[in-house]
Amino acid sequence: MRLTILGGGGFRVPLVHRALLDDPARAVTEVTLYDTDPDRLRVIAAVLERQAAGRERPVRVRLATDLDDALRGADFVFSAIRVGGTAGRVADERVPLAEGVLGQETVGAGGVLYGLRTIPVALHIAERAAALAPDAWVINFTNPAGMVTEAMAEVLGERVIGICDSPVGLVRRAARAAGADPDAVTYDYVGLNHLGWLRSLSYEGRDLLPGLLADPEALASFEEGRLFGADWLHALGALPNEYLHYYYFRRETLASVQEADETRGAFLDRQQGGFFEAAGRRPEDAYALWERTRLEREETYMAESREASGGWQRDSCDLEGGGYDRVALALMHAIAGDRRARLILNVRNGTTVPALAPEAIIETVCEVGADGARPLPCAPLRNDQLGLMLQLKAVERATVEAAVFKERDAALRALALHPLVDSPAVAARILERAAEAGLSG
């Protein structure tokens, strides 16, 4: 199979490459890396060359700086772009914070600004993929993954599938905490991207989740348990995706972000800028520099939320990196080999959540095979879960409308209706600041 990675100069590309090298089936024989930045592309190519050293039958890597060239002949396309680079993320975070509301890559006003800038580029990619690789499956890594996948699906239909590593990480950590094999459990997970809940976790016909939620010691043994706290999780009756910390503990998280020396985006901009500069000067050291930088990145993941929930360090097993890569590889195997698999993916709703439109993108458990991904039926959502989903879906749809039609009213609606933006006046000022900074596409 031929795989194309859009955003091939991205920092996390070596994780995907590593998964391909470790794949016993060697399903992917050639990878094309496409990026608009040739310098970053060369650095990542040097990392991959060192990573593949000594491997039998390493995956062939080809570099491309022309989108059409990269797409032709692809069987699978990973879209992992960052429009505006890490500098854009810095501004996405700082503009809302200047107005006293959360700035974050995919959540709140920052996520809306990022979506406004990214969706037009993602739509162009979808159109070129449809024209040049109509039989390819597009797997969207690009954040904000839910709304970007929804926009791309207007062109590609069911041939675009969004993925995220947060849900599968939650399932695996919860299973270990409950004393079960993560590979042997079944589960009910539903929501939107970065807004979902694990609502059952079954092993050999028994739901382990109620017992886990009633066990403070077991909850304290993994990340989400420490992040949300035993009292709240017991009251909630479900295990939320880690990003729901921004909603449930908005005051504490905002205070932590405001007190931090720099935003997450500013840290990554400085860290990755230093890596690419050093690796560009010393390509022979690129892999070692990348590995050291990757570990630091994982150690500092969601640092503000961890600080807001008492301050604690991530477990060593959660510092391996990856997640996206494993989900994507399993998805490719299931489609290409028609091997039935169950994965948590971002797909069209159909009838899974009756309150949402059939074409709305949700994040839920799917059965995957040669015909793509089909969402499985799920238990009815509680009112609090459905309410948040409906409100955030309205924000996502307004963001897509604003990005496609350049509608200021839709952009204002997307910002003002977000639960983490507390005033239409604040939303208007954020929109004005973003336009001045050239953030809104």
Protein architecture, described:
Strand 8 and strand 9 form a beta hairpin. The strands form two sheets. Strands 7, 8, 9, 10, 11, 12 and 13 form a seven-stranded antiparallel sheet that branches. A six-stranded parallel sheet has the order 3-2-1-4-5-6, with helices on both faces. It is α/β, with parallel strands linked by helices. The protein has 20 helices and 13 strands.
Topology:
Layout: E1 2-6, H1 13-22, E2 30-34, H2 38-52, E3 60-64, H3 67-71, E4 76-79, H4 85-98, H5 108-132, E5 137-140, H6 145-156, E6 160-162, H7 166-177, E7 186-192, E8 195-203, E9 206-207, H8 209-213, H9 216-219, H10 223-228, H11 230-236, E10 239-240, H12 245-248, H13 250-259, H14 264-281, H15 286-299, H16 303-308, H17 324-336, E11 341-348, E12 361-369, E13 372-375, H18 383-405, H19 408-416, H20 424-437
Parallel strand pairs: 1-2, 1-4, 2-3, 4-5, 5-6
Antiparallel strand pairs: 7-8, 7-12, 8-9, 8-10, 11-12, 12-13
Helix pairs in contact: 1-2, 1-17, 2-15, 4-5, 4-14, 4-20, 5-6, 5-18, 6-18, 14-15, 18-19, 19-20
